[in-house]
Amino acid sequence: MKKLILALYLVGVCSFVLAQSPSSVEMMAGGVTTNKAEARHEAAMLAQQQAAQAEAHSPMATSSCAFSFTSGANDSFIKYCVTTNGNLAQLETPMGKEHIAIGTIGEGYGFCDLSSVIRYFDYSDFGDSGNWGAPTILNQTTNSVKIARTTTDGIWTLTQTITQVRGSTPAVKIAMTVKNNSGTIRSLFFMRYADVDAGGDFQNNFDGTQKSAFGWNSDVSSNPFGLILQNAGPFPADSSPGGFTQNVPQGPDPCGFAAHFAPGTQMATDGSIVFLYALNVPKGGSKTVTVSYQRM
User: Fold this and answer.
1) Which domain holds residue 204?
2) 150-201: pLDDT as tens digits
3) What is the dihedral angle through the alpha carbons of 114, 120, 122, 123, rounded to the nearest 10 degrees?
4) What pTM value is reported for the model?
5) Is 238 within a domain?
6) Cα separation of 267 and 19, whole Å?
7) Range list of H helices, 102-174
């Protein structure tokens, strides 16, 4: 597993290049091109809706906010909400710059049980695998919510603790514990995903590193903001983490995540970001990984 992720990561290594956001360039050019930007915005929104409709959805899939958190002001401002299933359905930071609740909402988690090649995922509006039980709210405070879900086959339980991090550079921290309820050791690819529309723009630049994945608009644009998804804590010694990006907004196939892998820096793309761990989970045991979302 480690070799597979390393190979995927090496494919994506390239020189870092900054590009202008096309929509911002058009807006600076005047009214005619601004209309073109608006038309492209509408086209991108429609394309996202069609992509989401093509995915399977169980009755439990949702992008409705159940828990909301807000702190700070101006540059230190962060506002986000969490669904009952543990997806982020909205993320605004700094003030006035939304990165997820634009068009179709896509954020969540997925993993592939390599022992059985069964997929388990929930990507909000971009569909779910339909093999999850109902969520259980284990704890809720003014700064965090803890949610558990067990797969319908009883093999896996995922417990997420989603915490607000305040300060000059606020963040959303997500600790994810996956427990193997079966009687045999199991291996899996475990991932967190987000359809990033940085600062409200559908088309952004994207790239990834071994410890992060991010979507952003260049600092020469009129909307120079972005969002980074990164490892935010210790990870098991036998795991192999890595960030990568996709050239589509929908979530990755957990058992075929290379299908839309986008090598190198992607320019002016309606894409998405993924952080991946390869894990070996002992029978009756669990593994915990932690990621965070932070503005760029």
Assistant:
1) 2-132+172-295
2) 999 999 999 999 999 999 999 999 999 999 999 999 999 999 999 999 999 9
3) 40
4) 0.85
5) yes
6) 7
7) none
